[in-house]
Amino acid sequence: MTTRGDDEQTARGTHRETPPADDDRAAADAHALARRAGRHSGRRCLALCLVSTTATGVGLALPAALGRALDLLLAHAPATRWVLCCAALILLLALLDAAGTVLTGTVDARTTAWLRGRLAGHVLAVGPRAAGRFGSGDLVARLVGNAAQAGTAPAARASTLAATAGPVGGVVALAVIDPWLAAVFLAGAPVLFLLLRAVARDTSTCAAHYQQAQGRIAAALTEAVGGHRTIRAAGTAGKETARILRPLPELSRAGHRMWRVQGRAAARAVAVAPLLQLGVVAVAGVLLTRHRLTVGEVLAASRYAVLATGVGVLVGQVAGLARARAAAGRLAEVLAEPAPAHGKRRLPDGPGRLELRGVSARRGGRTVLDGIDLVVPGGTTLAVVGRSGTGKSLLAALAGRLTDPDAGEVLLDGVPLPQLPHDDLRRAIAYAFDRPALLGGTVEDAIGLALSSPSPARVRQAARAAHADDFVRRLPDGYATLCADAPRSGGESQRLGLARAFAHGGRLLILDDALSSLDTVTEARITDALLSGGTSGTRLLVAHRAATAARADAVAWLDGGRVRAVGPHERLWRDAEYRAVFGQGVGS
C-alpha cells in the first residue's frame, strides 16, 4: 500500500472497525433514518400503498366472482355479466401490478438518491475523521451498496401492507363463506406467525454480518488501488489479492446463513401451507356434501385458502425489509458521527494573525500534539519543520480547521475558528497539499474550484504565480483540457494545486508540504513569489527542505509533540539537532 508519510497517517488517523454500539440505539437510528427517507417520497409511497392494496382487494374479489360465474354456468343460468366481471378484474389486476412495479422502481431510485446525497454531504462535512474511522473503501461500500439496499425499505413497507392484507382478507373471506373454514385455517396460524418472526430476526443478523464483510473487502481493495505502483514494483500482487479477499470466507458464511434462513422458512411454509389448504378444502368438501356450500363457493374457498397461506410473499417481504434495515443501520452509523458545528460570529478586518493556544490532539490512541502555543503575526510567513511523525500535517489541518483539537483553541484575528460561519471560514483560509486532488472538469475548473464566479484572468494570474501557466498552455486544449486527459508529473500537479490556492486568496494560506515534488529552481521561484507579493496575508508552510525554511520569516521547530523552538532559520541552524531534521550533519 502506498505510504504518504507519518504526518499524513497521523492526520488521517488509523482505520478501525466500528465499535459495537447499543443494539437498541442502533435500531432506533436505523428506523429513524428509514422513516426520514420514506418521507422524501411520501406521496409516491402512499400511491404505491393504495395501488398495492387495491390490487390485493381485486385479487380477493376475483375468487368470489369466479365462484359465482361457475355456479350460474352449472345451473345453466345467464352468466355473461359475471364472466365479463371476471375478465375486467383480471385486466384491472394486470394494470395495477404494472403500476405497482413502476412506482416501486421510482420510490427505490428516489430514496436511494436521497440517502446517497445525505451520506455524501455528511461525510464531506465530517471531513478526514470519517475516513479515519470507517476507511475510504468501507465508506464507498456504504454509499453505493448499502444505500441502494436501504433505499428499498419505503417501497417494501408500502407493499408489505398489501402483502399482509392478502392473508388477512383470505381468512375474512373464508369466514364469510363459512366460519368453519376460517376456524380450520386459524388453527395453524400461530405456526406461520412464529415462522415470520424467526425469518425477520435471523435475516437481520445475517445481513448485518454480510454487509460488514463487504465493507472490509471494499476497504482493502481501495487501499490496494491507491498503492498499485508500490504493489507492482514489489511484485506482491498475489499477496495483496489474498489480503483483499481474506474476508471472503466470512462473507460466504454469512451469505450461506442468510440463504439457509430463508430456505428453512420456505421449506416450513411449503410444509405448513399445503396442510392448511388441504384442511380448508376438505372441510369445504364436507360442507358441499351437506349442501351448505355450492361448487362455486368451494372453488372460491380453495382460492382464499391459497391467499390466506401466502407466506411465501410475506417471507420475501420480511427478508427484504430485514436486509434494508441492516443496511440503514450501517448508514445511520456514519451519520451518527458528529459534523463540526459552526458559529455565526463574523471575522473582523485583520491581517490574518493565527494563534494556537494550548492545542493538543490525539490520533490512534497517542498524543501527537501536546499543549502547542504558537503565534503567527499577520502578513508573515512561518515554516513548520520537524522529523517525520511529529504532527506537522496535523498542525496544518488544525490551523485551518480541517479537524478540531482535543484541547485548546485556534484563533484567526482573535476569533476562535469554531465560532465562524462555514462560508466565512473557508473564504478566509486557502490550502495547498502535497498530493492535490484536481477536481472539476477542466484544468481551468480545477484552479478556480473554490471561487464562486471564477474569471479566466484570475485563473491565469494564479497559474503564472505558481509557474504552471507554461505547461498548461502546452496541453492539447490549454486551460480547457480535461483534468483526466492532462498528462502531468507530480510537480506539475503540485503547481496546479498551488495555483488553486493562490486563486482562492484569503487572509491565511496553508501549504502542507505543497512544494515537496518541485525541483529546487521552481521551488525557489514560487517561494520568492509567496514572499514578494505573489500572495497576500499570512502564510503557514510545512517544510521539509532547509532552503524553504530559510526563506520564511520564522521557523517553528516541532519535536516530541511540542514546539521546541521558534525563531529565524539562521539562528536555529546553529543547533546540530535542528540541522539533523534536514538530514544535515554536525559539521554542515
Which properties best describe this structure?
single chain, 588 residues, alpha/beta, six-stranded mixed β-sheet, four-stranded antiparallel β-sheet, 10 strands, disordered N terminus
Count of beta strands: 10
Terminal residue distance = 36 Å
* Average pLDDT metric: 83
Number of H/I helices: 24
Largest sheet: 6 strands, mixed
How would you portray this structure in words?
- Helix 6 (136-150) runs antiparallel to helix 14 (311-335).
- The strands form two sheets. This protein has a six-stranded mixed sheet with strand order 6-7-8-3-9-10. Strands 2-1-4-5 form a four-stranded antiparallel sheet, covered by helices on one side.
- The longest helix is centred in the N-terminal third of the chain and has 47 residues, at 80-126.
- The protein has 24 helices and ten strands.
- It has helices at 6-12, 23-40, 42-74, 80-126, 128-134, 136-150, 153-177, 179-187, 189-226, 228-234, 237-244, 248-289, 295-308, 311-335, 392-399, 422-428, 443-447, 456-465, 469-473, 490-504, 520-531, 546-551, 569-572, 576-581, and strands at 354-363, 366-376, 381-386, 407-412, 415-416, 429-433, 508-512, 538-542, 554-559, 562-567.
- With 588 residues, it is of the alpha/beta class.
- 42% of the residues are buried.
